[in-house]
From TrEMBL:
It holds the Pfam family NMO. Transmembrane segments: none annotated. The keyword Flavoprotein applies. CDD domains: NPD_like. Keywords: Flavoprotein, FMN, Monooxygenase, Oxidoreductase. InterPro entries: Aldolase_TIM, NMO. This is Nitronate monooxygenase. GO terms for molecular function: nitronate monooxygenase activity. PANTHER family: BLR1330 PROTEIN, NITRONATE MONOOXYGENASE-RELATED. Belongs to the nitronate monooxygenase family. NMO class I subfamily.
Amino acid sequence: MMIDKLRLPVVAAPMFLVSGPEMVIAAAQSGIIGAFPTPNCRTVADLDAWMTRIVAETQGAPGLWAANLVTHSSNQRLADDLALIAKHKPPIVITALGSPAPAVETVHGYGGIVLADVISVALGRKAAAAGADGLVCVSAGAGGHTGFLSPFAFITALRAEFDGIICVGGGIADGAALAGAIAAGADLVYMGTRFLAAEESMAIPGYKQMVVDSGIEDLVVSPAITGTPASWLIPSLVACGYDPRDLGKPATRDYGGDPHAKWKDLWAAGQGVGTVRAVEPVAQIVDEIETGFRAAAQRLGQCAGAR
């Protein structure tokens, strides 16, 4: 399995308006998986250029790269994005906000694997039936579009009936939490917020500083912005004129048009926000995660040995 060669079983999760070529390349070169959402590119030409660069600069890297594809029916660029996926052949394609079915034939055709974002066991079953090789359990505590199940309960429920790859995300932001998720049965762990303030992140300086300055109490979950429940930084909502105590009704769910213009000043983060204490390069963040992961694994070994 291609993920077995990774230095750590971590995905630098695809983040809207945050994940770009620099972060994807740095993650792959650091021995993990770097991912980005295709809507981060305003045009198909931009996406072609990004993928061309990523392919060139990740050849021989100890890690991998992944493209995150919105398969919701409102994504008017889906066919064009799929054509570029067929051209550049990302080893992993992560589908979101819809069935993985549109991507499966294309990705399997060149030997890649498809992971599907899911927020419930029922959606996990549907994604597996549609041909997904793995499931990304978007759990409570995730940044951006979030879930509501405990990561550990979610892993257990899916593992009981699915033997493919299970990736889990939701407030998992350091090496100890990574070790706990792997011990619980996950194959991979999504970490988004932990990389949000990375030097290679496309987040603007004000966003990065807000992440550094914020803690778990500075978050609110609401569907009022995108139509799907998402975890937002309260200070960014206030700066844009929202009342975080009354964000109103859910917005119309629409991922077409120009989302850059719609949401560029509204900033998301997950419950791991308190672990981000400085703006650091991706390589240093991965080093810190590995140190914590090895220490946690040693503690687990000692516990097992004591019994």
